[in-house]
Each structure stands twice: as C-alpha cells, then as structure tokens.
Amino acid sequence: FRSLADAKGSNAPLYLQLRKSIEEAVRDGVLTPGDALPSERDIAIKADISRVTVRKALQNLVEQGVLIQRHGSGTFVAPRIERVEQSLSRLTSFTEDMARRGKLVQSVWLERGLYVPSPQETMVLGLTANEMVARVNRLRFANEAAVAIERASIGASLLPNPEAVGSSLYAALAEHGNKPVRAVQRISAANLGPEDAQLLRVPPGAASLNIERVSYLPSGKVVEFTRSIYRGDTYDFVAELRLAE
Ligand code: 16G
User: Fold this and answer.
1) Can you give the pLDDT at residue 7?
2) Measured between alpha carbons, how far is 105 from 102 in angstroms, rounded to an integer?
3) If you measure from the C-alpha of residue 82 to the centroid of ligand 1, how many angstroms do you get, rounded to a whole number?
C-alpha cells in the first residue's frame, strides 16, 4: 500500500486509488483467496490516508465480491469461484451435489417457519383449505462462496416443522417419507436486483440464472415449489439429448 502515498497528487479519489491497488494485488496473485488484509488502521498508516477512506475502499471491494468481511475477524480476499457443472437429467439436492464434489456446504437462513400461503403457493402446491405453508429460505454456500439464494415452499402437511430442518431440506423431507422422486424445472436468465446482489456478493445488475423447481412424490402430489437464484458466473447446466423419434 506504500505506493499509494507516492501516487498522491493523482486526480483519482484516494479510495479509488486504494481500491485499484488492492484489485491489482489480487489479480497479480500478490494476495490470494483466503489471505487476510491488514487492519483498516494499519492500511491507513501505511498508505498515509484516513481510515474513512480505507473503509470506503474496502466496503466497495466487498460489494464487488473481491473481498469478504467476517465479523470479529477482519477482511479477507474472497474465495475463488469455481464453475460447477450441474446435470439437468438427475434429481439431486444441493447438499448431495456439493458433497459429491467434495465442497463444504453451508447455509444462512433468510426465513423459516409456517405461514399463510400466497395464492400462487396454494395453486402450485395444491394446498387444502386452511393448510399452512412451510417456507425454507436460504443463502447457500459452496466452499465459503455464496452461490445461490433458494426460497422453498412446502405444504405444512408434508413438512409440519420447518424449524427442525437441518442442513438439508431433502434429508428433512426424507425423514417424513416425503422425498421427491420427480421434478420439473424452468430456467431463465435475469439480472440481480440490489438486495439479491448483496446477498450473493456481486455488483447489482450481475447475471443470474433463476430456476423454478416443482417436485413430486411417487403419488403425483407436489412436494416442493422452489425459486432459486444462482450466480450467473458459477453454474453450467448440462443435459444429454437424444434424437427425437
Ligand atoms: C436444490 C434444488 C432445490 C432443493 C434443494 C434441496 C435446484 C435448482 N434446486 O438446490 O429445489 O430444495 O436442492 O437441497 O437444483 P438440500 O437438501 O441441500 O437442502
């Protein structure tokens, strides 16, 4: 960061100069994923600029997904996003997919509990009169990188206690004998709004793949209606196609 002191006098605002020098250090491999940055105070002293300026530059880089902040332990270079190939011909859960790839799965709860269903949930899930809906909304991580936002709705008769869902929704459904065996998915491209972008640690407007999944029990009853938002720079969906007869 010393070079910043030398660069003083350049026209660009100081926080942008600091941002650029950190971006270059990451790009050139001087700083690698997982590396801890010095404290705000140390950077401010070394670069001879105010802490407010340092904070602004770091916050900017957190918003851009270059850095991550962990409460209490500091600022780190964000984990590298590795693209994932995902089959479109097998019905699997996020936990199963990531475990197969040897990735660490983590989730942060956004919302979980029993709610009065929306008309769309009632229709898609075929809820009975007065049946509540279990909502299991999560931000999902693979190897510490936020990769997807998932909002799952399940009829309360199939998942009466959403609070008890542990790390895997499908495992919780299996415990009730309600694991889906078939699903229909719709995939569409979109651009992330500011809130979802912030959750996924990418700039607003970044590309996403939005996936709706409706899954079924062997009886044909709908189990799950899930809206997922995947980072556009993370997933390749792959399917095997056969010649139409
Ligand atoms: C997958 C499914 C999602 C399902 C979740 C269960 C897609 C697009 N979505 O992410 O519908 O709810 O797996 O994962 O594939 P879990 O058992 O790890 O909670």
Assistant:
1) 53
2) 9
3) 19
